[in-house]
Design a protein that fits this description.
34% of the residues lie in helices and 17% in strands. It has 129 residues and is of the alpha+beta class.
């Protein structure tokens, strides 16, 4: 966790050497599993040393490994059925949508009020004596 150098918002941080992490994951998946097929697309993106959207330094060789797991079978007794939670919306998303909708309703009500009272608001009144 840290602060984005661009937006100053709280965000996640990454290590500059993303290829090391990528290669570790690829090796972990392919180690001891002969049915996993690995194809590497060389120079998928250009090799660069720059910063990502969060302002973190990043280095990459530009290669894109593709793991084909279609022949991998789950262990016996392993329940591979997806859970129902993937269909549920997170509470924060629902709250955000309700707040945005409420704000739109308030803005609409204000606009209607202004339009209905426009004549009264723009008419000059004689000063009281």
């Amino acid at each position: 966790m840290g602060f984005s150098l661009f937006t100053l918002q709280i965000t996640h941080k990454i290590d500059a050497r993303t290829d090391v992490e990528r290669d570790h994951i690829v090796e972990s998946v392919t180690h001891g599993n002969a049915v996993v097929r690995l194809t590497t697309i060389r120079d998928f993106s250009t090799e660069y040393h720059a910063r990502n959207g969060g302002g973190d330094a990043i280095e990459t060789d530009g290669d894109l490994p593709v793991l084909d797991l279609r022949l991998v079978r789950p262990l016996a007794g392993f329940n591979a059925l997806p859970s129902d939670s993937r269909d549920a919306r997170p509470g924060a998303t629902i709250l955000g949508a309700v707040l945005v909708g409420g704000r739109a309703l308030v803005a609409g009500a204000l606009l209607v009020t202004l339009l209905l009272s426009w004549q009264e608001l723009t008419t000059e009144r004689a000063p009281k004596k």
